[in-house]
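It would be a great kindness if you could assist me with a short task in structural biology. I am sending you one protein, given as its amino acid sequence and as whole-number tokens for its backbone shapes. I would ask you to consider whether the tokens describe a fold that such a sequence might reasonably adopt. The full record is reproduced below for your convenience.
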Amino acid sequence: MDDYSPPQKDPSSSHSHGSSPDWGMPPGQQTLYGDSKRDLKHSGPGIASFVIAMITVAGYIIAFVFVGVRSSSVVSGSDSFIADYAEAIFYLGMSVLILAAVNVIGAVTGIIGLTLRRRRKVFAIIGTIINGVILLLFMLLIATVLVNAGSA
């Protein structure tokens, strides 16, 4: 016989390497190199954060389009352009404030989603980043308005 014959399979170990019960852990958690990532669920707060981010992005787009349409009377030379323009700016300001508050909620739920163990964190990361970037842009907008108001 050859010195390099294949090892004989032990009939008493009928389990595969990934589901070996002698590791002392349940079947979904015994791997050390990330094979159990398939079995993890997405975090609920992470999904909520991502959905909130998408809703607020759509809300900002709708708000700015609405204000653009409402303030088109300024360009057309309508007589009631001052009232229409003031009303459009009021709606824009209120919608931006409400959407920024919703972004704060989305950022908090994203951070909660990041802290959960044994959950996938993809949606939590994306939602936290989008909500955080929108909040940073909002703070930059507020800072720019305050600086310009002080110089006038």
Observations:
- The two ends are 96 Å apart (CA to CA).
